[in-house]
Amino acid sequence: MINHQSKLPNVGTTIFTVMSALAKEHGALNLSQGFPNYPSLQKLNQLVTDAMNSGHNQYAPMAGNLSLRLAITNKYNLLYKSTYHPEDEITITAGATQAIYTIISAFVKPKDEVIIFKPAYDCYEPAIALNGGKTISIQLSAPNYSVDWSEVASKVN
């Protein structure tokens, strides 16, 4: 047997695993990770099947399907009166964790310091570490969790 050593030996159980276990233990609705407690609509299943059978079963372009990016542009314009260019400013990802990891990997270099506000999504620190960066945490406090900008200034090197 080959023994592989993790690059992140100190990463423990994710908050999603913890919350899923608690939901199961207490018979609660699991809102932690998108596990609906109802079946998908048969119409949706059929539309997906029809699309797959029509040849829509290949990898999407790297930035995501252009028609989806255009729809997002239009929605943001309608809802927020903001303009984003669908080819230069919108990228589709497989989820938040992948998006965060991709952005951190694109910008964080070895020995960079990265300030994160806690509580934070649990993928920030491992992604920073994998890219050689150092996490600088700033704890936000109840009840309003507002940022103390003087503390932020004191943490910037």
List its traits.
single chain, 157 residues, mainly alpha, 3 domains, two-stranded parallel ribbon, 6 helices, 2 strands
Question: What are the SSEs and their pairings?
Answer:
Blueprint: H1 15-26, H2 42-53, H3 66-80, H4 96-107, E1 113-118, H5 124-130, E2 134-139, H6 149-155
Parallel strand pairs: 1-2
Helix pairs in contact: 4-5
Describe this structure in words.
The protein is mostly helical and 157 residues long. It has 3 domains: 1-58, no CATH class; 60-92, no CATH class; 95-157, no CATH class. The protein contains 6 helices and 2 strands, in the order H-H-H-H-E-H-E-H. Helix 5 (124-130) links the parallel strand 1 and strand 2. Helix 4 (96-107) packs parallel to helix 5. The N and C termini lie far apart (45 Å). The model has no long low-confidence stretch (mean pLDDT 91).
User: Would you count the extended β strands for me?
Assistant: 2
SS field, number of helical segments: 6
Helical amount:
40-55%
Shape: extended
Strand content: 5-15%
Evaluate the radius of gyration. Answer: 20 Å
In terms of quaternary structure, the protein is single chain
Total individual domains: 3
The structure class reads mainly alpha
User: What strand line-up does the widest sheet have?
Assistant: 1-2
Order of helices and strands: HHHHEHEH
Overall pLDDT metric: 91
The major pleated sheet works out as: 2 strands, parallel
Distance between the termini: 45 Å
Low-confidence stretches: none
